[in-house]
Design goal:
binds magnesium ion; Fumarylacetoacetate hydrolase, domain 2; 7-stranded mixed β-sheet; 203 residues; 4 helices; 34% strand; alpha+beta; 14 strands; globular
Length: 203
């Protein structure tokens, strides 16, 4: 399995990092090894001094597909949750300045925390789902999927032109504003429609 991630999918977040709004989804991939084992702490990596959280709405793929049409995309996912796209922001800035790929900043071991899965709403509608991230009990990010520049259907249609999507793949759909750094002993909690689905402790 793999994790397909979307960058700059919320206008307020693109703005806070001084990035232009994309005209097509910005896609990158995290490998299977990037998944943080559930309920295990995240050990602060030695290669960064600016590890940041990005709380994101996540869907799980339940069918293999390629060149999926947007209006059929809803039949390709069977569960939703939240994830944290951990990012070594200092490395990402270095790589961006040199015009180089982001993998070392985005796709390293344990860079993808994935919450407990929840069923897809009965109407399959994912365009009005609220979520938030709390750090040490204080809300740092609030998002709603209605604010995504590219919705889940568009992401699946676009990404599947380049990458076959497979059963078990996860799609991280981008983060809203409010990203920030973590330090050792921080506690991150993610809430999907008020329901806590993920907790990560930094060690
Ligand atoms: Mg992200």
């Amino acid at each position: 399995m793999k994790i397909i991630c979307v960058g700059r999918n919320y206008a307020d977040h693109a703005k806070e990092l001084n990035n232009e709004l994309p005209t097509e989804p910005v896609i990158f991939i995290k490998p299977k090894g990037a998944i943080l084992i559930p309920h295990k702490p995240l050990y602060y990596p030695e290669f960064t001094d600016d590890l940041q959280y990005e709380c994101e709405f996540v869907v799980r793929i339940c069918k293999n597909g390629k060149y999926i049409q947007e209006n059929y995309a809803h039949s390709y996912y069977d569960a939703i949750t939240l994830g944290i796209d951990f990012t070594a922001r200092d490395l990402q800035r270095q790589q961006q300045a040199k015009g180089l790929p982001w993998e070392i900043a985005k796709s390293f071991d344990c860079s993808a925390a994935v919450g407990d899965l929840r069923p897809v709403p009965a109407d399959r509608e994912l365009n009005n789902i609220s979520f938030r991230l709390d750090k040490n009990g204080e809300t740092m990010q609030r998002g709603n999927t209605s604010d995504m520049i590219f919705n889940v259907g568009k992401i699946i249609a676009y990404a599947s032109r380049f990458f076959t999507i497979n059963i078990g793949d996860l799609i991280f759909t981008g983060t809203p504003a409010g990203v920030g750094a973590v330090v050792t002993n921080d506690r991150l909690e993610c809430f999907l429609e008020g329901d806590k689905v993920l907790e990560v402790n930094v060690r």
